[in-house]
Amino acid sequence: MIYYTIVIENSDEQYRCSSNESLLNGMERLAKKGIPVGCRGGGCGICLVQIIEGNFKKCAMSREFISEEDEAKGRVLACRIKPASHIRLTVIGGMRKNICRSHSVIQNR
């Protein structure tokens, strides 16, 4: 099994994820909280991320949340991709503000 480092730029959090699990599953397995969690099956769009750097294998994603253009630009659902290299990403979408705000509160303590 191969493990890759996943870096979430919004929160400066990082974790190791195996090549045979989704980015979201890897994060949850290690009790990390950098990517918002919804349905875990690609049907809600909550775990929308922008891949800044790295390669991944993808599973089918709902076109309701991810258009072909989005996917081509690296905007994907963390529950529907598996790492094929080290990955840097940012959380995007409606939940992003909550993640950034939580990180800011923690840093200011």
How would you describe this structure to a colleague?
By secondary structure, the chain is of the alpha+beta class. It has one domain (3-107): Ubiquitin-like (UB roll) (Roll), CATH 3.10.20.30. Helix content is 22%, strand content 29%. It is built from three helices and seven strands; from the N terminus they run E-E-H-E-E-H-E-E-E-H. The protein has helices spanning 23-29, 68-72, 96-107, and strands at 3-8, 13-18, 48-53, 56-58, 75-77, 81-83, 87-91. The protein has a five-stranded mixed sheet with strand order 2-1-7-3-5. Strands 4-6 form a two-stranded antiparallel sheet. The radius of gyration is 13 Å and the shape is globular.
Summarize the structure.
With 109 residues, the protein is of the alpha+beta class. Helix content is 22%, strand content 29%. It has a single domain (3-107), classed as Roll (Ubiquitin-like (UB roll)), CATH 3.10.20.30.
